[in-house]
Amino acid sequence: MAVSGYDGSGVAAAPFRVLGPLEVSGELGAVSVAPGRQEIVLGALVLELNRVVETTRLVDVLWAHDPPKTARAQVQICISRLRKALSDGGVDATIETRAGGYVLRAPEDATDVGNFRRLVTEAHALARDGLKMPAVETLRSAIGLWRGRCLAGVPSEVLAGTAAQWDERRLEAVETCMRLLLELGRHEHLVGELMQLVASHPLRERLRGHLMVALYRSGRQAEALEAYHQGRAILTEELGLDPGRELRELAQAILTDDADLALAEPAEPAEPGSLAVSPLSEAVQERSADPDPVVTPRQLPADIGDLVADDAIVSAVCEAVTEGREKGQLNVVQVLGGPGVGKSTLARHVAHRLATEYFPDGQLYCDLRGPGGQPVDPAQALGRFLRALGVPGQAIPDALDERAEMYRSLLAGRRILVVLDDAVSESQVMPLLPGTGSSSVLVTSRGQLTALPGTRRFDLQPLGPEQAIQLLGRIIGEHRVESEREAARVLIRLVGGLPLALRILGARLAARPHWSLTSMCHRLENEHRRLDELAHGELSIRASLSLSYDGLAAADRRLLCLLSLAEGTEIPSWLGAALVGDRTPHPTDLLEPLIDSRLLDITAMGRGGEFRCGLSQIVRMFAHERLPAEIAEAERAGAVRRMVGGWMALAERAHKAIYGGTYTIVAGRGERWHPPEEHVQRCLRDPLGWLESEQTNLLNAVELAARSGLDELCWELATTLVTLFEARGYPELWERTHRVALTAVQEAGNERGQAAVLGSLGTLHLYRGEHEAAGPYLSAALEIFERVGEVRGQALCLRDLARIERHHGDDDRALALYESAERNFVRAQDVIGRAYVLVEMAHITMRRADFTRTRSSLDEALGICRSAGFDRGQALALRRLGQMLMCQQRYEAAERTLLEVLAMVRASGDLVGEGYVLHDLGRVNAHLRRVEQAVQHYSRSARIRERILDHSGAAAVRADIVAILGRPMTSVG
């Protein structure tokens, strides 16, 4: 590109310009080249125009150390995108593939570096022929091609070495130009120019020598010697060296007024308007100064046009970046979030929005994660920033603190926005903070950088359903999304609304318009291949997660992999300790590093300060993929055993808290893992509520135990969960867990476990009113229990077989079975089991109008339940008492008792009990001829019994409604 007032040769701007920041232009104007890898690859090709650049060389310039396994593939991707950019921009050049590499094919004058080389060669030839003035003018044209340091801002250590060689050739051209102008007698016009050049390059002895000659010939002998002594002091202080022989001899010649210093020929007169009066244009003088106050860095990567984000968050971040700057306060704003959540995209968008109005002096940008995911050293980042601010490489100090001081000095009073992307730690960021409040800093990070002073923090979450739909529509077209809106929602759910994942899916769908969204859903349904599907070009969910994963300590990586074994949507704090077998009283501490790295999300906070975490499906699949490499099979088995044992221990404690002990349940011998007692006590504040809240995790634990060969824990946990299923009305979950457990114990030959599961399935059929189906299960279970000598199991089966006989109307047979069950409960010391039997026997004696015996049985059952603290048992006994009072036609007393029971079951969340009691209250009010109140109770009972899938019970309620109204109600809902 021609520099105004200096490119006297009329050299046209070359399409490829690397003598400064990389620029490309074509027939359609400037061509956009993506910053980073594409810039690096193109820079390497331009410097070797029309010569093959080997692929290994391109890998080296991209990754100086430890290139990834996909390096060659990534080079190919860069080449493909560069070809498209050049073609779209109308650039007269092609990138051809050759054996072992690539070649940029273009005319010889297509690069500024080629034109520079040609002009310098021509100037040397003119000088050899004695044509000094034409040689100077040609050198001016060559030097005028420079717009800054070669490949300024292109982040490649290897390429920086090549670029530095071209910077050196520019200085050599400047030195030659100065020498020729001195020989032409232009010394008086050169003094100011040479002083600036020497100040910029204090260690270049040739430039200092030219300055000394110019001063001497201008009659300023003392200043010439002072220039020498200043140079000597700098060399001694910085390098511990004396000046070279030529400079020492020149100083001696000046001191002795040597005649050889006089001009060898008379000076040529300068023509009016001749450029000889100004050997270097003002623009070039400014670019040669150090530091360069004119340099305005524009390092921001391109903004994304299809950004979808919460407008409130975008506005809040913009406000935080700009507020208080007039008061001189430094704003440091953090945008935090997990991998792929869109932190960098949001930060770049905000930076572009604010750049022109608030930060006209420039924008600095650095990806602090660096190539290959390795954190960028702050000294290296400062070096990039200083070069971008116009500081020549040789003037940048080596020490970190000195670089930071120079950086703060250059930013002082300037309005510059510093964007630090993907910061790893506070120590990485602190040296990069400006010293004054005229500038602002925008930081993105996966972790909490809490040690940064005075920062504002914004946490990004995955996109909500509507935002995600909007993003997908912008990428692939709204018509495609609208035509398959349900499939779009499924895609969003499968990737958890993660913006990076959605962009990858969008890019793949956009590249294949014949693919339907439904077909993409099918591809993602296979969890083992989902991460493979979430990759497109350089975008990859796996690569993004790897950066966070590789940055973890070994113990934290192992814990994350083990957490992938827990299949619930939420992870309680104790679970991490169980998986690694750590008995710490503060298990939450083990999860903190994963939370800090945004691989775990806090989903809820308890009143006691305990939190629950969520592991997204994407992170879970990634961690599960790494599991075999991190954890040996035996260790994985131990972790699963402890995890399921932990759930078993907690479920068992919840059952004890509800029933007052290990009553009405057959205990197994599975190994327990006991969470910290403090956590257990928090769970037991509402044991039934805890079972309900952990329902998903408990169900998953049953199925995981079955898959892992833990048959004993499997059947124990399944039968213990009947405490929840029976009280809250989950017959389908009751059956699901027991079918899984039955298969597990049958395959393991676990007889006791088979009996427990069969007996519980028999109880389930009774719960559903399926008395005929219940019998075979209970008889089979009883036979096994008798064979293995399990007394409590026998009692439970005899109790339920009695219920079947009662249903059939054989009360005598039922009473005999109940009495046998009672004896076995006594032998097993199961007082609650006995109380249940007493309540059931009371129903038979009540139907026989033996109210004395009925009352005695109920009073004894109530006493037992009250002593044990078993509220549900008390409610059952009181309900039966209310029914007895109805039989005695004491309806007001019956109503009072049943209302007391209704309050009890509602307080405990016993939905099944509530349905039964409401039915009883309907009957009481029917006897009292309160038709409206009776119908209200009946209707509520019917709704509940339908809800818990008790269809026979709901039918009985509707029959009573017909009886009182003389017709069925239009609706009981």
Report on this structure.
The structure is a single chain. The chain has 973 residues and is of the alpha/beta class. 61% of the residues lie in helices and 7% in strands. It has 45 helices and 16 strands. The strands form five sheets. A five-stranded parallel β-sheet has the order 8-9-10-7-11, with helices on both faces. A hairpin with a 5-residue loop joins strand 1 and strand 2. The longest helix is centred in the N-terminal third of the chain and has 27 residues. 47% of the residues are buried. The N terminus is likely disordered.
Give keywords:
3-stranded antiparallel β-sheet, 61% helix, 5-stranded parallel β-sheet, disordered N terminus, 45 helices, elongated, alpha/beta, 16 strands, 973 residues, single chain
Quick synopsis:
By secondary structure, the chain is α/β, with parallel strands linked by helices. 61% of the residues lie in helices and 7% in strands.
**Structural class by sheet pairing and helices:** alpha/beta
Residue-averaged pLDDT: 86
Give the beta-strand count.
Answer: 16
Task: Assign an overall shape.
Answer: elongated
Query: Nearest-angstrom radius of gyration?
Result: 42 Å
Helix count equals: 45
Distance between the termini: 81 Å
Percent strand equals 5-15%
**Major sheet characteristics:** 5 strands, parallel
Helix content: 55-70%
Strand order in the sheet with the most strands: 8-9-10-7-11
Low-confidence stretches: 1-9, 266-294
